[in-house]
Design goal:
9 helices; 7 strands; Phosphorylase Kinase, domain 1; single chain; seven-stranded antiparallel β-sheet; alpha+beta
Length: about 280
């Protein structure tokens, strides 16, 4: 009997612990002989940890009393129209139901907690806040997750170090099929550590990492998956403890991430934007 092929959906279910015991054995057998699939599973696991690191603190926060009170208050209209059973005022509100409501509220706030900045021509020291604040784009979210996963690394924060910058540039440019070069941030106090290749939504993306004299790190996420995106606005998003400035330039998508003040990151993002704009 032929075994069912291992799909990407199976790998996600394996990481999430949702496979049946029999299917889990099949997937583990496949991972033992497929380094690429094993590496993909490791990436999914790291992303899960990063997402938990970003949002678990929000889920652990105390729910405001007014929200709990709203959850406990019965729907009077529904109560008036009910014809039998328990009165709405006596409806049992379990701790689990309250927890689910609280979690939903927190996730809604987290998803909407992103601002955006727009400019016809960005000047490094001048950034204007737009009136609307839509949720962060996938580009900003993916960049923030990648920052959380790799910036704490001590032994191997990058795949190729700054001492091999030319090899790094050639490697990433070849994989992304574009000229990919890290901007110079020494004048702002940040030096290049190196970079790495990461999986994007539909292909490879690049990540460059920098640090300052105190050890504070920031990362520049570079994607070439934006050919159909005509929105070139310069935007800001906050993903948990990570601030992100991101923008689109032709097919390129850039996102600068760090756990530093928004004003400081804006200053650096302006310089990055100006340097990269000269290359295209």
């Amino acid at each position: 009997m032929n075994e069912r092929p291992i799909s990407d959906q199976d790998l996600h279910a394996y990481v999430d612990g949702e496979l049946s015991p029999a299917r889990r054995i099949e997937v583990e057998a496949w991972l033992s002989v497929s380094p690429e699939a094993a590496a993909q599973v490791q990436t999914y696991q790291e992303q899960n940890l990063a997402i938990k690191a970003l949002f678990n603190p929000l889920l652990n926060e105390t729910v405001p009393e007014r929200l709990l009170q709203a959850a406990r208050t019965p729907n009077r209209t529904a109560a008036a129209g009910s014809s039998g059973g328990l009165p709405a005022a006596a409806a049992p509100w379990s701790p689990w139901s309250l927890q689910r409501i609280a979690a939903s509220i927190v996730l809604a706030v987290a998803s909407a907690g992103a601002g955006w900045f727009a400019h016809d021509r960005l000047q490094p020291a001048i950034i204007t806040v737009a009136a609307n604040t839509p949720a962060a784009s996938p580009l900003a979210h993916q960049a923030a997750v990648a920052h959380v996963v790799y910036s704490p690394e001590v032994k191997r924060p990058v795949e190729v170090g700054a001492d091999q910058e030319e090899q790094l540039v050639k490697w990433l440019s070849k994989r992304l099929n574009a000229d990919i070069r890290p901007p110079r941030l020494g004048g702002l106090g940040y030096e290049l550590i190196g970079g790495r290749l990461l999986p994007g939504s539909s292909g490879p993306v690049a990540q460059f990492m920098y640090h300052d004299a105190s050890g504070q790190r920031l990362t520049l996420y570079v994607s070439t998956e934006n050919r159909d995106n005509k929105d070139t606005a310069f935007r800001f998003a906050q993903e948990g403890p990570v601030n992100v400035f991101y923008w689109i330039d032709g097919k390129f998508g850039y996102a600068l991430s760090a756990g530093i003040a928004k004003s400081e990151l804006a200053r650096i993002a302006g310089a990055v934007y100006a340097q990269l704009g000269q290359k295209h």
